[in-house]
Amino acid sequence: MKKSGKPSVFLTTVCLIFLCVISPLSARDLAEVRLALIGFENMENDNQHDYLSSLISAVLTDDLSNTDGIVLLERDRMDAILSEQKLQISGLFDEGSAAEAGKLLGSDYLAGGNFLVIGTEVLVDITLIDIETGRVTSFSGRGNSEDTIHLAAEKIARLLTGNPHIFRSADSDKPIIKDSLLPPGSLKLFSPLSGARIYIDDEFYGYTTGNSRVPVEIELKPGPHRVQTDLGREFGVVIEPEILFRKWEKEFEIESGKSVTLEDPTRHFNDTLYRIHKILGDSRSFNNGSSTACNIQTDFSFQDREGFPISGNLTIVFTPADDGGLKAQVMLKYDYDRKVWDIECEPDKTLEFEQTIGFVDLRIDIDSTYTNRTSASWSLWRNDVNQGMFSE
Questions:
Q1: Torsion sign, CA atoms 155, 157, 163, 165
Q2: Is residue 157, in this structure, part of any structural domain at all?
């Protein structure tokens, strides 16, 4: 029997049924979706945030107008059509009039909603209405940057096209509330000073109280600021290692609704210089008649005023004498230099011993005038730093 070159009617029918089952496309599925973006209403009584309505619409328009499968109706064209009918867009977006509005504008979907500013964030509610079916889809987002709006655009694009879209980027997290409208933050300044002048951004604010446990609280707008305290020419901070004298100041950033805590390190320059000037120091008493030696070893390090590191070691071996005096063998290492001295304080006498290596002065004082004991003290001092040098 000769076979026909045409497919059988049965096979053709089966194929058509199969295609209909796995791909139930409607006429609208095969075309681009037309979207009318109606707008967003400010739910606050205060109109200072009304500008967000235009901002939200602008970001959504920018995202969705560049999305394949979506045709965004132009706002000017929608206004012109509605003007002919003596209608306004703001009065059309509700479930009862959505179908009429959609047909009038020639759109498949209407999108719009409202927003509410809550502290430093914006709550955006969006409603998407299918003109053909009347189906309503609602979702919301809350945040303080444009990413909140970009995320809403991603949801709309996925609902209308069935495909995922990403509109957020590393540069899209711009704040959406104007700095001037954000709730203020505050600076909590702890200071031990009494009566020091406080300057904020070079403007006089007030005085410190002298209570280091209770801060001075200063309300400030969000953004960068600078604080400075001034108690006269003898007070401030010492810059190391150069040993420079400055009034304390600090730059900081205030976030809306949050506080920054700072502690004022201002001190009398001599107090700070004494700490820098003295490298180490200690003392010891020895009972007369004791023959037990005492070995003292201490490492030290610092940076000189040019920033070069200095390190060393002080070793002292004290040996009490039977008759009440005190002997000491002293070794001072200073970087690669080393010096050794043998000293002795006789009974009922005092001894002052001083030596210098580089930027270090060594001082040892021994007092054997006590009845039953001998005392000794030792210290190292930097000779490139001294108290009072801030006034030179």
A1: negative
A2: yes
